[in-house]
Protein: Amyloid protein-binding protein 2
Amino acid sequence: MAANFLLLNSDQTEVIVLGPEEPRNMVSKQILTLDGITLASSNAVRNLGVIFDQDMSFNAHIKQICQTAFFHLCNISKVRNILSQSDAEKLVHAFITSRLDDCNSLLSGSPKNSLKTDTIVVRQMTVMFLFVGGFLSDAGWYGDAEKVFLSCLQLCTLHSEVLHCYRAVECCVRLLHVRNGNCKYHLGEETFKLAQSYMDKLAKHGHQANKAALYGELCALLFAKSHYDEAYRWCIEAMKEITPGLPVKVVVDVLRQASKACVVKREFRKAEQLIKHAVFLAREHFGHKHPKYSDTLLDYGFYLLNVDNICQSVAIYQTALDIRQSVFGGKNIHVATAHEDLAYSSYVHQYSSGKFDNALFHAERAIDIITHILPEDHLLLASSKRVKALILEEIAIDCHNKETEERLLQEAHDLHLSSLQLAKKAFGEFNVQTAKHYGNLGRLYQSMRKFKEAEEMHIKAIQIKEQLLGHEDYEVALSVGHLASLYNYDMNQYEDAERLYLRSIAIGKKLFGEGYSGLEYDYRGLIKLYNSVGNYEKVFEYHNVLSNWNRLRDRQFAVADALEDVNTTPQQTQEVVQAFLLAQSLGPTRPCLG
Structure:
């Protein structure tokens, strides 16, 4: 070695013997001398950060990774409250995920018993994976979070201890949340069944895990699939599981999901009480700049939009978007969904004015972010494209340039067709979401003067909605009103139009009261219809009805700030829960605007 100008460092030179155990032991006993340095073989040696053992099982390496990552995980958790989301991401990647990724291809094909021999290692790794997966999920990186949680579930199968069953249930709940967020609903259903199997194992050992979080996530899954009756039923089960000592995050999420389920069932009093308490809890516990607070605001905005308090819903959605942008930055899936919600509420709010610049900006921003992060055929694009198409259609109608109008309508048509195909692929033909897309196409075909195609789309939308939601649902009323407009303004089928207008008005009044904003278009449609057929007595009658409606709208929603009455709350969580369950036992409340 000296001839080649080389010198061994005795402190950093190690020897290991690999091979079958018996001959390996014989060789290991021999003492080697190399360049004047005496070397004895070791059971494990380190090479470029990887610990090799004589069996090539990498047990020592795995244990070292767990200990190091868990050490840094504990340190980060101590300062997490004073770190921004961006800084926390950097620390997790620098000290934890980088170590998990480093040379991990060497572990491919390793037997399960390489971990099974050390229960403490498995416990440390499951805690670490739950933390890292939760962090990735909160950041909106659903694909990476799903991989981590799947690895965590594999670890939980290595031991049959009760503790690992509890960990597996927790992991399933978080995996279900991730798959819901990533629109993997079929896999989400499998995850729920897996969680139930772990619950059954615990029950056999005389243990009982709280089901609030699991049932809340199932409610979210069913809601996303438009299975509203089932979602409502499971939200009741989730509310029953809320007990003192439950983590605030779980309570807030269950209240949010239950509120949304109540909204689509038109149980507005219940929905209002639940979502306002969720907003209050999130703000008090997490602070007014926390993502969890923005989550509750988005659901509060959903409630306000559905009870026709459109102006306040826009303000709430804007606040939620501001929080998410400050936490996550620009290119983030959570920011994209906030843009989309704000786009739609702005579109509804600006419908009568015809000024859609703000709504269009947020719709395009949502699409840009989603296409930057997710594949082109991802289901999350369906609703964003739908909102943009609705906006483009209204802009085209008000456009005085024929060429520009045709271009905008064609772009809207392409967006609607793309959304429809994504919805049919995910949900099938017989689904509320698919029906909404048919209805949107019907409106667009009317603007494109393709009246027969428009009629076909509206009738298809009504049939699906009636079978799924009943004959007196808000969604049915919307489609009925759109078909009435087609018959009235373009096809001169006045008797059919009158019957449909009156049906739409009756549903709107029953659900939302005399001041419902959607009544304006039905009233104006009837005035035009009665003018066309020469029934001037009815024209005068509905002019008076419209005037009364305007006066009601002026008096409605006197609260200047929708957050004013949720800054403080006289009720405790258990009081809210018990009030909800008591009202449920007494039967549905009468829908109202709260």
In short: The beta strands are 15-16, 32-34, 37-39, 41-42, 44-47, 50-53.
